Amino acid sequence: MTATDSAPSAPGDGSGSGSTSAEQELQQGFDHTIARDQRIEPRDWMPEGYRRTLIRQIAQHAHSEIIGMQPEGDWITRAPSLRRKAILFAKVQDEAGHGLYLYSAAETLGADRADLTQRLIEGRQKYSSIFNYPTLTFADVGVIGWFVDGAAICNQVPLCRSSYGPYARAMVRVCKEESFHQRQGYELLMTMMRGTAAQREMVQDAVDRWWWPSLMMFGPPDGDSPNSAASMAWKIKRHTNDELRQKFVDMTVPQAERLGVTLPDPALRWNEERGRHDFGTPDWTELQRVISGDGPCNSERIARRRAAHEEGAWVREAASAYAAKQAARAAEAAVAAEGAAA
Ligand SMILES: [Fe+2]
Ligand SMILES: [Fe+2]
């Protein structure tokens, strides 16, 4: 299959034969870049569908990083030691940084960050379903690092080869940080498992609550994932939801054994023939419910994001006023220098 017949983008319907052939040429150039596994950069021509799909995916990813600060941020003031507080602080700050790189990547496609934030707080753009679950104990911090950041690694490592340059490059650094997040979570859990019986129970309880929502993070099954095919053909995405979910399960099972916890799935077993684990089916109606806004913490998460945005209005105003003043001074200086030179 060539890129030309696999790419779902139709050549534009430019009026007149001249513009149609010009557009076809641009489309061919784009298709060849994709077929050769080279990168599309911000100044390159790209089909409108590609641009829209990327903006949607990158914005959703950015929103997830920012909203994802909340469930764990809740535990910063209650961390059990200075060391745990410092680690958690660093991790939550990293997530803010991930959000910022991603909003910047979306801006290279012509999106406006203020508009994306508005869409998030008005519920017109989504973020990962996983962040709509509550963090009930400190073990949840460990399990989020292990499962949620682990799932993020499965998702994001292939995105380092995504066809859009700024997105792929942002992912390289993000993945390095996600790997620290996963390790700190696992190490926290290992420490708790070496502690008291009550601590071990807390870990098992957190594992029981987060396992299925973590599997849902990869999105609906491939058959019900309408945007997947286009994203795969454009090499924005490199693996399907089900492939990534399988990879996550295979990676996590031996880690659970070493930790000494049980993953809450009676159907989970090694399949010799496939060389992979078989596992049960997540509750897709729950995923639908959470995505459509009816999860345990959806309204709380959005309300908090909205409040932070409103409370930060004076910072944005001050920064814009300062930038305008600097620009005016620079313009004045340029005019003065021109006058002096004349
Ligand atoms: Fe992140
Ligand atoms: Fe992370």
Give a quick summary of the entry.
The protein is mainly alpha-helical and 342 residues long. 68% of the residues lie in helices and 2% in strands.
What would your notes on this structure say?
With 342 residues, this protein is mainly alpha-helical. The chain has 2 domains: 23-293, Ferritin; 296-341. It has 14 helices and 2 strands, in the order αααααααααααββααα. It has helices at 3-6, 16-35, 48-67, 69-73, 82-107, 113-121, 138-156, 165-193, 197-216, 228-233, 241-259, 284-294, 298-311, 313-341, and strands spanning 269-271, 276-278. It has a two-stranded antiparallel ribbon with strand order 1-2. The relative contact order is 0.10. Mean pLDDT is 92; it is low at 1-17. The chain binds fe (ii) ion (2 copies). One fe (ii) ion (FE2) is lined by residues 65, 95, 98, 152, 174, 178. One fe (ii) ion binds next to α7 and α8. InterPro entries: Aromatic_CoA_ox/epox, Ferritin-like, Ferritin-like_SF, PaaA, PaaA_PaaC. This is 1,2-phenylacetyl-CoA epoxidase subunit A. Residues 1-12 have a biased composition (Low complexity). Residues 1-25 are annotated as: Disordered.
Note the topology.
Elements: H1 3-6, H2 16-35, H3 48-67, H4 69-73, H5 82-107, H6 113-121, H7 138-156, H8 165-193, H9 197-216, H10 228-233, H11 241-259, E1 269-271, E2 276-278, H12 284-294, H13 298-311, H14 313-341
Antiparallel strand pairs: 1-2
Helix pairs in contact: 3-5, 5-8, 7-8, 7-9, 7-11
Bound molecules: fe (ii) ion (FE2) (2 copies).
One fe (ii) ion (FE2) binds at residues 65, 95, 98, 152, 174, 178.
